[in-house]
Amino acid sequence: MSPEMLDLLGQSLVETLWMVGISGLVGTLFGLPLGILLVITDRGALLQNVAFNRVLGAVANAVRSTPFIILLVAIIPFTRWVAGTSIGTTAAIVPLSIAATPFIARLVEAALREVDRGLIEALLAMGATPGQIVRKVLLPEALPGIVSALTITIVSLIGHSAMAGAVGGGGLGDLGIRYGYQRFLPEVMAAVVVVLILLVQAIQSAGDRLARRLDHR
Amino acid sequence: MLTATPASQAGSRPDGGFLRFCHEALARYGELAQGDLVTHAAAHDAPATDILRFPAPATPTAAPALFRLQGVGKTFPGKHGTVTALDGIDLDIREGEVFGVIGRSGAGKSTLLRVLNLLERPSAGSVLLDGEELTALPAPALRAVRRRIGMIFQHFNLLASRTVADNIALPLELAGVPRARVSARVDELLELVGLTAQRDRYPAQISGGQKQRVGIARALANEPRVLLCDEATSALDPETTQSILELLADINRRLNLTIVLITHQMQVIKAVAHRVAVLEDGRIVEAGDVADVFTAPRETLTRTLLREVIGDDIPPGVHERVAALARGWGSRGALWRLSLRGEAVDAPLLAELSSLFSVRAHLLHGYIDEVRGVPFGSLVAALHGSEADLADAAAWLTTRGVRIEEIAA
Ligand SMILES: Nc1ncnc2c1ncn2[C@@H]1O[C@H](COP(=O)(O)OP(=O)(O)O)[C@@H](O)[C@H]1O
Ligand SMILES: [Mg+2]
């Protein structure tokens, strides 16, 4: 492979990491609180609000059931409003974040539901406020699960980011399509696939190791 | 209805003089005036076989009520109509005592305990702590009250993400105690429960008994008025159970801390409780001093539960042979269960009986035990003698403080 190609590969890797990193961050920023809300407003939970819980759940499901490539195109006006442009790496971050948010919310919800009800009881008996219960019990006890959830999210964002080429987002997937497929350069395609495999492996094993380190059960 | 003691029973007290009786009776009526030891009317109908019951219990010095439950009821909506978990519970729990609640699974024990800190809001009645109506408190005030009520659980409910020391520190953090004071207090508590060496371990790295010790230390962190124990030893082996019970008894004595514990095991009640309430289908069917309930259980359920700690069943082979013998005696024989307590336990009753009346006693079965310093026991004997002699013997035994129950041959 030519040095220019290697350069391009490096640049695409950075673009992918940038898109995935920022959308993962934004997705967590919104998804984590939404996951907490899904748990604590459920029937019989700390701050029961069944109507709110239903609506939130329905919205999360709606976003999650929209195929990413459709979401990408459908929200272009919104993307332009947020990012100032609907083309490019930064513009791709908007739909990626929107896809990541309900994904993270649902995974965080599942992790929080694993926390033993007895612990919440114990904290209530100590006179803890709902906020204290979330901070002192729900989040710390579910932390290994949340780390696993974020690992899965990042891996799946790497997959989604390959479609960002549709809005000129760049990244490894885009490189593979444009050079590997359209210009028929199989070695570029192979290189992209290898880099993606290594990237996913590295993230998954780092996430697993961290989750295990945090788990004292 | 109240469990009052008719003064006419004064003479039959097995374990004290008249003056002491008067003293105790006064103390007792003093408590009754406060609505103490209230149970259901049905509980007081003596079984037909009771010739005479023990005189009513002498309760220890009357301490003021810490908790007072009045007409507490709790229903849960269920699939097949509502489930009544508690029904008309009247109860006083006194400062400094260990109060036990015993009953079978599903009797409503946990619900009753959880009503005390309003983890379960009663559907009816009132819950008073130090005279304050808890059900009327707004959420922040209720949280403040809960900080002064420690609670421990069957499955410990420790945070897996925190070390032993950090688990104990949690209630202090919640209460906003400054960091420096937290660590000093945690050290004190670790020492109290004997876990100083385990301070930096995680719950997964310690034994069940040690976990419950952490639970106890955590519950004591905010210097509570009362400690609630929900089947605290039910997940532990007998030896560990013993050591946890000893710790609880020790804490009760040393800190004069009121303890309310619920259990399905009579051994637990026997080991630590001062008073006990027997719960069945959400109602208190019997309540009183542990010594009294153990020595003179009124309810079938209480007796059945007691059988766990005191094997008072006559071996079936023995029962058969003696029953045949007694049938041969016809009206000149009877099978009696004699319940004794206090001084009566030490007296050579059967020997005296034979020398005073022309009655022969065949001892079939017996045990002697002690609860809270009161010796008690039960003897099963087949008696041979004329109807008149048997009646005289029964009357005499009764004056000696023995309760007689006729057993069907
Ligand atoms: N949260 C609840 N919802 C519905 N029914 C309940 C609930 N808690 C307890 N019950 C019912 O109330 C009764 C008493 O339960 P509980 O107090 O747990 O009994 P115990 O602790 O003596 O085993 C049982 O019939 C139980 O099924
Ligand atoms: Mg229970």
TrEMBL record, chain A:
It is found in: Cell membrane. It comes from Pseudothauera rhizosphaerae. GO terms for cellular component: plasma membrane. This is ABC transporter permease. It holds the Pfam family BPD_transp_1. It comes from the Bacteria. The chain crosses the membrane at residues 20-40, 52-76, 82-105, 142-164, 184-203. Gene3D superfamilies: MetI-like.
